[in-house]
Specification:
Oligomer: single chain
Number of strands: 7
Radius of gyration: 18 Å
Helix content: 25-40%
Largest sheet: 5 strands, mixed
Strand order of the largest sheet: 4-3-2-1-7
């Protein structure tokens, strides 16, 4: 499925249940962007190529996963989500920026709150994340195989639709 279809599915599922999400991001050896999204026993793997700062093309796949030590470590971190800031937190954040102070304490406090669905956000300021960054966000041999299939699909599509992007400049 296309990366755009995968994103729409993420949003729909996140809005239905905003708790327990984990997101890993990275780039592979060829410069393609990888996203790994975990929720419960499901994993989505997306591979994309940026066409511009505002547009990308890519493919994604969803599969069921088993618990592993790597997943247990990832799940021990704060879950991904959208967390609205209350007016006191917004004011504290603004004051910290104005006074060039650390915002770590404020961020930690916000991260302790539960993520909310997008339609329940009423605050003008929202904190999104965390997104863990890794040079190799692939978690298992099975995901490595899926990653190779997605890379092959992406390169075939780029060759057909955007061949100029794959040529070296002289």
């Amino acid at each position: 499925m296309s990366a755009e279809e995968v994103r729409k599915e993420w949003v729909r599922r996140y809005n239905a249940n905003p708790e327990g999400w984990r997101v890993l991001a990275g780039r592979d050896s060829r410069g393609y962007y990888d996203l790994v999204v975990l929720h419960g026993s499901e994993l989505w793997l997306v591979k994309e190529y940026p066409l511009s700062p505002y547009d990308s093309v890519g493919f994604g796949v969803r599969e069921r996963i088993d618990e592993s030590e790597v997943l247990r470590r990832i799940r021990s971190t704060h879950p991904f989500g959208f967390r609205p800031l209350n007016y006191m937190q917004i004011e504290e954040m603004a004051n910290a920026f104005r006074n060039e102070e650390s915002v770590d304490r404020i961020v930690r406090g916000v991260m302790e709150t539960k993520p909310v669905s997008l339609q329940n956000i009423t605050s003008p300021v929202v904190m999104q994340g965390p997104i863990m960054h890794s040079s190799a966000p692939i978690l298992s041999e099975r995901q490595r195989e899926l990653d190779q299939k997605l890379r092959s699909e992406l390169e075939s599509m780029l060759q057909r639709r955007h061949p100029h992007l794959l040529r070296q400049f002289i």
